[in-house]
Amino acid sequence: MKVKEVMHKGVDWVSPDTPVTELAKLMRGHDIGCVPVGEDDRLIGMVTDRDIVCKGLARNSFDAGRATARDVMTEGIHCCREDDDLAKAMHHMEKLRVRRLPVINKSKRMVGIVSLGDVSHSASGDLLSECVKSVSAHH
User: Fold this and answer.
1) Is the pLDDT of residue 97 over 90?
2) Which among 75, 77, 76, 57 is positioned nearest to 67, based on CA atoms?
3) H/E/C letters for each residue in 56-103?
4) Highest-scoring range by mean pLDDT, 12-21, 93-102, 110-119, 128-137
5) pTM (2 d.p.)
6) Contacts of 136 (CB under 8 A, 6+ apart)
7) In what residue span(s) does the CBS domain sit (predicted)?
8) How far, in Å, are 3, 48, 73, 88, 126 from residue 45 at the CA level?
9) What is the DSSP code string of 3-64?
10) 14, 25, 13, 31: which is closest to 102 by C-alpha?
11) What percent of the chain has pLDDT over 70?
């Protein structure tokens, strides 16, 4: 099975200057836990709900009214390709200990995101179990 068969399609990204409050509203409105961040037509990072809490709200000097995606994002982005085998993408998620991976096409354009939730409906029980154990382990 290929990643493109299970991924969530139609994912957008935000600018690094997007206010954190807007990110939180976007996450709530779309019932999602992460938002890719792009600049100059390329992905540069990811903001998760956990990033907002741990890198933002938990800091003493954090000003939610002024903070932007750049202030809380995890820099550097790891992707998989839409034509990758799902097992390959899951092993990549295991190795990186991430719950979500942006998906790119041959032109290196983001075309979706694959999450543990997406693969839970399609992967074999053994493969899914190993991936969940690895991704959920303490860092």
Assistant:
1) no
2) 57
3) HHCCCCCCCCCCEHHHHCEECCCCEECCCEHHHHHHHHHHHCCCEEEE
4) 12-21
5) 0.81
6) none
7) 7-64, 73-130
8) 21, 10, 6, 22, 30
9) GGGTSEE----B-TTSBHHHHHHHHHHHT-SEEEEEETTEEEEEEEHHHIIIIIITSTT--T
10) 13
11) 87
Phi/psi at 74 (5° precision): -90, 120
Please choose, from the candidates 69, 73, 9, 25, the residue with its C-alpha nearest in 3D space to the C-alpha of residue 45.
73
Whole domain around residue 49: which residue ranges? Answer: 3-136
Dist CA 5 CA 110 (whole Å): 15
Intra-chain end-to-end CA distance of the chain, in Å: 29
What is the domain count for the chain? 1
Angle at 45 between CA 40 and CA 50, to 5 degrees: 145
Structure tokens at 67: 């903070």
133: pLDDT confidence band, cut at 50, 70 and 90? low
In the beta sheet, which residues pair with residue 112? Answer: 9, 103
